[in-house]
Amino acid sequence: MSVEFIGIIHTQNVSEIHPPAGPVIDVDYVEKIARAHDEGGFDRALVAFHSTGPESQLVVAHAASVTKNLKFMIAHRPGFTQPTLAARQLATLDHFTGGRVAVHIITGGSDEELAKDGDHLTKDERYARTSEYLDIVRAEWTSEKPFDYKGQYYQVDQGFGAVKPLRTPQIPVYFGGSSEAAIPVAGKHADIFALWGETQAQVAETIARVRHAAAKHGRQVKFSLSLRPIIADTEEAAWARADEIVARTKALREAAGLPTSGHRPPNAGSQRLLDAAAQGSRLDKRLWTGVAAVTGAAGNSTGLVGTPQQVAEALLDYYDLGVTTFLIRGFDPVEDAIAYGRDLLPLVRRLVAEREAQPAAAAS
């Protein structure tokens, strides 16, 4: 198995330790961070989706125009665009970017956030809708003749996509969601299932659940893990930076009137991270839950802390569990992306290559 690295592109410099400042869409910043990932050797960069934020496909279109090799992972929420149109939009963008597009399906775990876009379905209903949505998207991408579709949420008469993805048979589909409603849909549709940075035991459990769900459809799924690495020349310096990040996160949240403990978001992914954080701030070899505990695990908020060598070895522990994609982003987004590209990505790739070479050497 090879290993894939995904970074993230926001439209302004923002993180748990950097309050948003300046325009919501800072074109110069988008270009700077996109190039940092491209030059740093990342395989892809995620562009996130939120009901109040810039539109992810349009951000990717611009980021692709200023990069050469970087591919993209477009966060996309089913239900707000007709699936036939979404399939054609993504396929069109795939052509204009030279086949650099993947889609990350996020059904959404917060009723309050979804209501901002006028969506009032329950979580179970949303995942049922997502399954139908992806049925139709895949039909648009692959069908050589018009098709009909009759579902609870969508009815299509003689649908057909004249524009197919540049790559065959289709654009890669990443999928997020850890609830009981999400896993069966992931098993049917996900090419790559995305987890947040959980403990090794939690990751192994979820991988087993998704594989079981995929086997019912005769499918195999790859796995992605999202983490916030904290690296430094020494382990002591890395942990000192982690402590500083927690302190700055608390200070910014307090200044904004946000809670710093005791809050628990409704989505299953955050709840699983908080369950891990309840076990302690340092778990397994070097899994760090400090920011997750402060923010209520609002998103990708756990990390691995140590020297590049130590963090690379911890990543390989997840690789051994079946994770082949790592979505990594820092608290200083541009600076950390540069550091990862220089100090971490080449090291992990070398260790993975050595790991893959061992069975071949033993068999010869």
Reconstruct the topology from this structure.
Blueprint lengths: L3 E5 L18 H13 L4 E4 L8 H10 L5 E6 L6 H14 L4 E6 L4 H5 L7 H20 L4 E4 L4 E5 L13 E4 L5 H8 L2 E5 L3 H16 L6 E6 L2 E2 L3 H21 L12 H10 L4 E2 L3 E2 L1 H6 L7 E4 L1 H14 L1 E6 L4 H31 L1
Parallel strand pairs: 1-2, 1-14, 2-3, 3-4, 4-7, 7-8, 8-9, 9-14, 10-13
Antiparallel strand pairs: 5-6, 11-12, 12-13
Protein name: Alkanesulfonate monooxygenase
Pfam families: Bac_luciferase
InterPro entries: Luciferase-like_dom, Luciferase-like_sf, SsuD_RutA_monooxygenase
Give an overview of the whole structure.
The chain is an alpha/beta fold and 364 residues long. It has a single domain (4-228, 301-357), classed as Luciferase-like domain (TIM Barrel, Alpha-Beta Barrel). The chain has twelve helices and 14 strands. It has helices at residues 27-39, 56-65, 83-96, 111-115, 123-142, 182-189, 200-215, 235-255, 268-277, 290-295, 308-321, 333-363, and strands at residues 4-8, 44-47, 71-76, 101-106, 147-150, 155-159, 173-176, 192-196, 222-227, 230-231, 282-283, 287-288, 303-306, 323-328. An eight-stranded parallel β-barrel has the order 1-2-3-4-7-8-9-14, surrounded by eight helices. Strands 10-13-12-11 form a four-stranded mixed β-sheet, with helices on both faces. It has a two-stranded antiparallel sheet with strand order 5-6. Strand 3 (71-76), helix 3 (83-96) and strand 4 form a beta-alpha-beta unit. Helix 1 runs parallel beside helix 12 (333-363) and helix 3 (83-96) packs across helix 5. The mean pLDDT is 95.
